[in-house]
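Bench log, entry 3. Co-assembly request; chain sequences pasted below exactly as received.
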Amino acid sequence: MKNKYPRRWLAWALCLLTLLSLTACSKDGAGSGIQVEQGGGGSQGGEQSGGGEDVTEITFCNWGDSEERKMFEEIFAAFEKDNPDIKVNYLYIPQGEYMTKLNSMAATHTMPDIGQMQEMSTMKWAKNGMYADVGELYESGQISGRLEAVTFDNTSNGTVGASYIAECYTLFYDRDYCASMGVDVPSRVEDAWSWDEFIDACIRLTVDVNGRHPDEEGFDPDHIKVYAISDFPAEMLAINNGGGILNSDATEIWMDREETIEAYQMVADLINVYHVMPNPASRGAIGGGNNVLLTGKVAMSYAGQYNLLWYKKYIENGTLNLGFGVGPVLKNYTVLTSGPIITVFKESEHKEEAMRLLEYMYDTDNIMGQVQKGLWMPSDMSYYTDEEKIDEWLSGGEYYTDEYRTAVVDVMRDCAVRDNMFKLYNYTTIYQVINTPLDQVWSGKKTAREVIVDEIMPKLEKEMQKEWAERK
Amino acid sequence: MAKQRKNTHLSGRARRENLAGYLFAGPALLGLLLFALLPILVSLAASLTDWNMLTDWTFVGLGNYRSLLTEDYYFWGSVKATLYYAVLSVISSNLVALTVALLLNTDTRLQGIFRTIYYLPTIVPAVAQALLWGWLFNVDYGLFNNILSALGLPPCDWLAGESTVIPSLVLMSVWSCGGSIVIYLSGLQSVPPELLEAVAIDGGGAWARFRTVTLPYLSPVLFFNVLMSMIGSLQVFTQAMMMTGGGPNGKSLFFSYYLYLKAFTDNQMGYACAMAWMLFLLIVVLSALFFRVFKSRVFYESGQS
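Structure output for the full assembly:
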């Protein structure tokens, strides 16, 4: 009879278990609720148990797909070999939820020691003093000499820094298809198309399901089989035309300048007048990004250089004859850039060790093997000016063709312009104000002038006033 | 007095049993307290601040609510989009679910198979649904436009059109109304066949049987389903997140999605908390209204209403 109420013991046990599992949610210790994988190969000498000096564990966070994950594991393994007193735990977060996760970690004071920052939020985080001061590394020249186009503006909170790798918009094209249509895509800025030549080429590249081109009688714009181009970043064309959304140091609004309005209308005309490009809103499944040329639905694609990582597999197995081109020139050929910084977070308790990893990753020699996989471009200027270094970089794979040299490397050096992500604290808010009403331009419902002047400008002016007030 | 007496009358055994009961409920209560009630209260507090998740917050009073109602560029548009979606989706998904349930309730040989087929979409995860329908809706290569073109009809913009985006998303939501179908079906099982027979004997047709017997007996289920789908659809999120990004031209910027953007993209967590409370208020008001208008019309067999 002693065990008359066995369920009460069960209940106590359940409650205790719950409490126990809750304590495991606290931020200290290994059970921090964050999934961390061991960086690198794991067991180089000098593990904690091996006696001798202590090993400091630091956590590095970034995003990417499985291929990129492998690349980072390689980097950390090499770093740990050179630095046996540091162990890198790799916290991998899917790209779509990267800032959601990072913001949540910041709010709960569970930040990793070091990590990659998404460009759109980099300045906002700098404004809020989230980074350790890396000014010394820049001033001492240890990680300086970067392309200006991937440099974040300095703030009162110390140096923000430059991207450790760079990216720029690249005009990829399907060489076989373009050749079959008799279109020769230029690969040097000197040979670049004028706008009219570009339109001509696009018309020759676009065919409907009956094999007709947009300039032929009976062309069916509702059933297009192949579009000439998947996407054309309008802001880039605006800068190409001497305009832009803002001036180069973001102190003036240029959105309503004639050059800008004209460029936005030109892009809209590619969709609605010439029918050589899909409406961005309807693009959906053919995508504007990765692998779009593989679908065979477009002939050319303006996308980040990083697409090479995925394309190269198809180049190597002969599925895709990939070309690198240069788009049309209006006034000055322009490509926009991106590229994340690596930063040490202010709350890190292992700043010194984290700084060593940061310095290591900013040394392009240490990550050359990964750069050459096609995902990245170096961010130091010397890789664009020093012939020896360029040769070293481009010896990494057969996909680095002569065209790549002129249409990507030289273009990055001569035509790259900093995206506003590198300048604005409130980038996301400001771009929502710009991009939302532009859908009406892409769909052909309104002209670029109507939307820019009536709908965008009043809000943009208000938002920029706030931005400028924060700069002071 | 009565309560006190009752307590003293509890035997030692009964008290121990009570304690055991609380203890068993303990883990669930603890979870509710820590992971629901506490965050809810924190979010109420945060809604009165300018919290950006990165630095300490400052108290701003009702400032967030004020700028939400008076200055926000997208607030009213997003309320409108959400309400439009909710109304359209509640009506159409319940109509379809009820119709399908009525059909599935008839005695056919393949009843089991049909019921399975209609329930199947419900177990497809929301994200997979979004990807699948994204393809179906694709303007250039999607199945729907292919069908339209085969019928000689002009293509539709679906998710790309300002006026078609919400109806398209509603169409998608109707596809996965299997859950409501099951509830309607179980409601239909409780309709007494003898009453249906009586109407039939009196010469009533299918419509009369439905209106005078089935519908009253089904009204509690109908009430429940409509209320739940209303609350659910006011919180619609995944479709905007996965398929439209709130576009085109902000026409599918659903409230929950806008809230998410404010919180995690713009770092305005305090503001987003205020938005969450506005949504809560909206749902409470609409639910209360719904109760007021329809509760009295619900028929319960026991006679209680």
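Chain A has two domains: 32-164+340-362, 168-337+418-471. Chain A touches chain B through 48 residues (CB under 8 Å).
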